[in-house]
Amino acid sequence: MLEFDKAPTYQSILEAAQTLEGIVRKTPLLESHALNTEIGARLFLKCETMQHTGSFKFRGAYNTLRRLSSAQQKGGVFAYSSGNHAQGIALSAQMLGIQATILMPEDTPQIKMDNTRGYGAEVITYDRYSESREEIGSKIADENGLTLVKPYDNHFVISGQGTTGIEIAEQLAEQDVTADICVCPAGGGGLIAGTSLALKELSPSTKVYSAEPEYFDDTKVSLECGTRVANTGGKKSICDAIVTPMPGEITFPVNKETLSGGLMVTDDEVRSAIREAFHHFKCVIEPGGAVAFAALLTGKIDISGKTVVAVASGGNIDPDLYREILAG
Amino acid sequence: MLEFDKAPTYQSILEAAQTLEGIVRKTPLLESHALNTEIGARLFLKCETMQHTGSFKFRGAYNTLRRLSSAQQKGGVFAYSSGNHAQGIALSAQMLGIQATILMPEDTPQIKMDNTRGYGAEVITYDRYSESREEIGSKIADENGLTLVKPYDNHFVISGQGTTGIEIAEQLAEQDVTADICVCPAGGGGLIAGTSLALKELSPSTKVYSAEPEYFDDTKVSLECGTRVANTGGKKSICDAIVTPMPGEITFPVNKETLSGGLMVTDDEVRSAIREAFHHFKCVIEPGGAVAFAALLTGKIDISGKTVVAVASGGNIDPDLYREILAG
C-alpha cells in the first residue's frame, strides 16, 4: 500500500512531474500590458483554469491514481470534494480505467456535478453545512473497499499540485524573469503547499502568500498563530472551491515553513477580479480561483514596481453566477 | 519604402516569426476530453483570444510597424479597423514609440474603443454602413503624412498573422498529432491566408477551410466562383470583427490556392459556440472569433473521427453581450 501521509518534498514533486509529463496541460502564464500599466507592477496570471477539468486538481488526482497498486485500481477509488477534486479524480479514473465514487455537497455548482458524472463517476451528495464529509466518506470507503483519495491531505496529491510551481518557475525563467511574489489560493492548502515547495527550490527569492475568502481565512490565521486554527463557521462565501474548515494536517506543516503570510479578500473583491480577468485575459475564473488575483489587485500586499504571480486555480463557474458577476 | 503589396510567402512568414520571437505570446492550443467525447472527434482550439490585445491582430501589426523606416516611424501610422487591428496597431505603436491614429466604426464595441485609446492611440470614428473607411482613411493618411497600415491587404500583416499557423503546426507536432482539418475565421482573409500558407508548408495534408458569418460569407462565395465577390450588403451580424465587404486583393489569391473551401454559420450557431467555449475551455471568445469553432460544432464539415483545429481569433467582447449570450 502507498503511504499517502508522508510529507511531500521537492523530490516527490519532481517524481510527480515525470508521471504527469505529456498528461497534464502546461497551462499558460499570461501577462497584460494594459493591466500592468494600470497597477504599476508586472503581473502574471497562471491559468490553471485551462488545466484538464478546468482546475489544477487534475494534477494531484492523476498523480495519485497512477500510483495505486493494481488491486487498489481494481477496487475503485472514493473521493469527497466540493467539485474540482471530484472532476480531477473522475477524469483521471476514466483515463486509467478505474471506477470512481464521489461525495459532493448538495449545493455544488451544477457545472461541477454534471462534469463529474460526465467523466463516468458515481456521485453521492450531502449537506456541507450540517454533515461531515470526512465521516461519511470514511464509512462509504471502508464498507465498499474503496481507496479514499483525500483532496489535499495526501502526499501524492500535494506533489501533483506542486508541478504547477515547477511550471511557473520554468515559464518565468524562459522570459528571464524572477517573481518577487507569488500568491496562490488556499482551501485545504494542497496547491499552495506543493507550489511553494517547488518555488522554494527553483526560485528561493520569491515570497509565497496564501489568499483566502473572508470568513474562510483559516490558513492566514493559522500562519499567524503558528498552529492549525479552524474557521468559526456559520458563514457562507461565493468561493465554493475553497471554503474548507481548516488547514490540512499534511499541508499546514509545509505551508508554515514555506509561506511568507496569508492574505484575505471579500466576495466583492473576488467579483471585481473575475471581471478584470474577463477584460484583460479573456479568461473565465471561478470565485475560489480568483482570490489570489483579487488580493494582488486590491493591494493586500505592496506590489508596486514588483513582478508578481497570481495563480488562477480554477474556472468551473455556473453561467448564471458568471453573468451576475459580469453585470457588476 | 517598404513594399506592402507583395504576395506573402512561407519565407516571409518565417521572417515574421523571427521578428516576433519573444514579443508575441505563443498562445495555448487547448483540447477538452469531455468535448472530444461529445463530438466524436479530437478538437484543438487555438486561443488567439489570449494574444496580446486579445486577438491575433497584434502579430501582423507589430511585424509591420517594426519594419518601418525610422522616417515612417517618426511620421506616425494610421489604420482603419473594426477594433482588433486597431488594438494591435495601438499596442505595437506604443511599444515602438510610434504615434498611431485609428479610424473605427462608431458602433465598435466599447471595449475595443477603450482599449485602443488605452494604448495611447488617437481614435476617429465613422459610420460603417454609409461611409467608406478606405476613402476616409486614405484621405487622412495622405493629408497628415501618416503611413497607412491596412488590416489585411499588407504583405507584412499577413506574414505576421501566419505565425499563428507555425505555432499550430509546432504545437501539434509536439504531441505527435497531425490535423486533418483546420478552420479559421475569415474577414478580409489575412489570418487565414498566412495560417494556410504556413500549414501548407509544415502540414501539407491538413485541409484548411474559412469560416464566416451568414450574410458575410464573401470568402466562401468567392472561392466557389474563383474570383472576388462582394457581400450583397444591407445585413448585420454580431460578428463585428469580420463583417468585411469582400475578400482582400492580396489575401484572396493566396486563399484561392491554399483553401479547401469555405464554411458559413449563423449568429445563433456562433452564440452556442461561445457558450461551449465558456463551458469546456474557460475561454472568452468574441462572436467573430468563434465562427470556426461554431462551424466545427455544427457539422458544417464532417469531422467524425478526425483531428481538427479551430482558430479562436479574438476575445474582445463587451460584457453585456457576453452575458446575453451566456443566458442562451
TrEMBL record, chains A, B:
Keywords: Lyase, Pyridoxal phosphate. The keyword Lyase applies. The keyword Lyase applies. InterPro entries: Ser/Thr_Dehydratase, Ser/Thr_deHydtase_PyrdxlP-BS, TrpB-like_PALP, TrpB-like_PALP_sf. Gene3D superfamilies: 3.40.50.1100. It comes from the Bacteria. Residues 23-314 form the Tryptophan synthase beta chain-like PALP domain. Its cofactor is pyridoxal 5'-phosphate. Pfam families: PALP. Transmembrane segments: none annotated. CDD domains: Thr-dehyd. PANTHER family: L-THREONINE DEHYDRATASE CATABOLIC TDCB, THREONINE DEHYDRATASE, MITOCHONDRIAL-RELATED. This is Threonine/serine dehydratase. The lineage of its organism: Bacteria, Pseudomonadati, Pseudomonadota, Alphaproteobacteria, Sneathiellales.
